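Chapter summary example.
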Amino acid sequence: MIDICFEDIEQNDLINDSFLQSWFLSVIQKFNKEQGDITIVFCSDAYILEMNRSHLNHDYYTDIITFDYCEGDLVSGDLFISLDTVLSNSIELETSFIDEIHRVCVHGLLHLLGFKDKTDDDEKEMRRQEDIMLSIR
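The structure predicted for these 137 residues follows.
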């Protein structure tokens, strides 16, 4: 099950719950995994900064924080996504807000599927996978 909620911001009508649920399921199935419980929390910059400080000891804003609860082939976790930062990124990257939301969402899902982005090679592969998964929306 995928649960979508909003913290410290108003619900955004651009975010289509049923679309995200079916898209996530298709991405998970492409990797021969099983969908567990995934929560997507759309939030403000202030909220994600507090999450970053309290859970990761990081003192900076980010677009997404992923908490991985996967066990075996069961994909589960929490994705915290700052819509403030996503909007800033969409302006900076000259892309639509909803396309940037989708990129950040699938980025978090790819982390749950085992992809990393700490090294240059890992980051290139993450971007490649994001592009592939965005093409199947």
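To summarize the output: The beta strands are 2-7, 34-43, 64-68, 74-82.
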